[in-house]
Recover the amino acids of this structure.
């Protein structure tokens, strides 16, 4: 995984450390933007946010562990939306990037326990029988 500053929001000069070879990982800002149209919450008057495509519904387990949901924000299926982690730091190294319940990227303290994990993996379809 490319953890360089190039994978982060363009105005952030932080990077996520050394590159890794992970089978399961969190998305970078660049990847979240590419696949879910996630953008930084302050940019361009939110470009019509809230962004329904990038919203997630926390699992029952995540909710039992304290995952946050917003009663006003809903996923495409109509469930309460929660926040999810991205893999790179925020504007400062002591913050992390998240996708908020409204579908936009924001920052959150790394000690926060109310944010969900949305794992990702690459699948090589050519390797399937």
């Amino acid at each position: 995984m490319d953890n360089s500053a190039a994978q982060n929001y363009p105005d952030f000069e932080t990077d996520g450390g050394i590159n890794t070879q992970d089978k399961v990982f969190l998305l970078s800002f660049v990847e979240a933007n590419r696949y879910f149209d996630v953008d930084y919450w302050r940019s361009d008057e939110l470009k019509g946010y809230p962004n329904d495509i990038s919203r997630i519904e926390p699992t029952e387990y995540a909710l039992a562990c304290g995952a946050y949901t917003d009663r006003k924000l809903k996923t495409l299926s109509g469930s309460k939306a929660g926040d999810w982690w991205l893999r790179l730091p925020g504007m400062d190294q002591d913050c992390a990037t998240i996708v908020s319940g409204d579908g936009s990227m924001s920052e959150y303290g790394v000690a926060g326990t109310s944010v969900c994990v949305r794992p990702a993996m690459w699948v090589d379809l050519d390797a399937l029988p």
Residues 29-36 form the longest helix (8 residues). The longest strand covers residues 69-74. The helical segments are 29-36, 60-64.
